[in-house]
Please model this.
Amino acid sequence: MLTKSRNQNASPDRSVIVLTGAANGIGRATAVALGGRGYRLGLIDRDAEPLSIVRSDLESAGTNVAAEVADVREGESLKRAVGSLEATLGPTEVLVACAGVGGLSSAMDLDLDGFQRMLEINVLGVARTIEAVLPGMFARGKGHIVGISSVAGYRGLPWMPGYSASKAALTTYLEGLRPALKRRGVRITTVYPGFVRTAITVDTPFRRPIPMLEPEQAARYIVRAIERRPRDFTFPLSTALGMGLLRRLPNALFDRVMDDAGPKALTTEF
Ligand SMILES: NC(=O)c1ccc[n+]([C@@H]2O[C@H](COP(=O)([O-])OP(=O)(O)OC[C@H]3O[C@@H](n4cnc5c(N)ncnc54)[C@H](OP(=O)(O)O)[C@@H]3O)[C@@H](O)[C@H]2O)c1
Model:
């Protein structure tokens, strides 16, 4: 399904950004922030109704925007979606691969179906999205791919081993692609958000309230990553420092910290 809109006031020079996971949460807020900065936006999500709402909100605000319903697990439908968006907006200059799912798991409930879903969406789904835009970027000799990973992929976290593994896989996948893409003019930025208040985190049974960014705050950081094009970008600073330290802890010390924190953080059986 293609829904499209052109706005005469939209800046013709701003890049075309294709964004997956654009109907909700961080992706939606990022689309709104990018629209406010004059980018042309191609939105993709599997959630038709909220996608159509964000598209029409952006259109009312003067953004040149088109939207396509597609599931990032389906390569052919993704390619068709990207083709339709590009026919409307022009070639994709930036891809923001934001579609993702979360989920808790533990030794008491490994939830392997959930784990499989996370691998299919968070890892293969991003790979399929990259596959859909890459031929065009190679032909033009330029492009920027922004992958939304997570600090949960820095190390194996005991409340979400499946989610941690999916984000670690995504991070190393993007790292592995980097040199060959660079030779062909395509840059990769890997983004590592801390906690953001969205559907993914809202039902997490934390024992104590923990600080979370609002999606609009996360979006401002992601806009910075899109425009500055760093190799890696972690936000907010407190998370970058705290999780950066955790990432560098020697294994024995990391295990001791997690032995202690594992049973304490959530109300679920550990
Ligand atoms: N929230 C956090 O604290 C946090 C922290 C670090 C990283 N992240 C990452 O940030 C990204 C966005 O997450 P969010 O927190 O904004 O979650 P969200 O509010 O659930 O938004 C994710 C969007 O992606 C869509 N999506 C999921 N699977 C899809 C698929 N197979 N094909 C197409 N679209 C799909 C979702 O649709 P449905 O509603 O139908 O699932 C939803 O619209 C994810 O990659 C997540 O892992 C989030």
Remarks:
- The first strand starts at residue 2 and ends at 5.
